[in-house]
Amino acid sequence: FDLVLAPSRRMVDQLQAMGVHGALHQPLGIDSAIFHPGRRDPGLRAQLGLAPDVRLLVYAGRFTADKKLDVLLDAMRRLGRDYHLLLVGGGESLPVAAGTTLLPFQRDQRALARILASCDLLVHPGDCETFGLIVLEAMGCGLPVVVTTGGGIAELVDDDTGVLAQPNCADGLAAAVRAA
After folding, report:
1. Residue 1 to residues 8, 16, 23, 42, 58: CA-CA distances in angstroms?
2. Does residue 96 surpass a pLDDT of 90?
3. What's the mean per-residue pLDDT of the chain?
4. What's the pTM?
5. Would you place residue 172 in the very low, low, confident or very high pLDDT band (cuts 50, 70, 90)?
6. Backbone angles phi, psi at 66, to 5 degrees
7. DSSP for residue 142
8. Can you count the helices (H) and strands (E) in the chain?
9. Residue 52 burial (CB count, 10 A)
10. 123, 57 in Cβ contact below 8 A?
């Protein structure tokens, strides 16, 4: 190849370890005209039947084992009734859990932006993302984020935008959500 681009510094390091030298870091971006706080819809909570004081968390992405949704659902059990999780996406079936609502994959970016902007916090428990575009989309909508220190996604978060959690640890994820 003449050029190899990678969306995170961590991915550049992984490529180098595999023998691909000279890869360049090229972060991805979002359309801030679509993903912004003005998409907030106060009616979403009523639609979900939630009290105004319940913290509305959101995960958006594929429902696959590598996303560590089992850790997220375990963390939700630890957080209790003051929190509700909106799972947006599709893939493998998830166990029915108290305090969660499933929504299908949102093909329309404006529909996804409306959901994100209407929540309180994005939680992404995966530890092997090369970038994590959903984190930027959530931040564009004005949401703080909780992500793990595993994978390239942690490069997107600082003290002003969210909280980092230890990978594969429901207690740590729950504590990070409370801290955020």
Report:
1. 19, 14, 10, 49, 39
2. no
3. 94
4. 0.89
5. very high
6. -70, -15
7. T
8. 6, 8
9. 7
10. yes
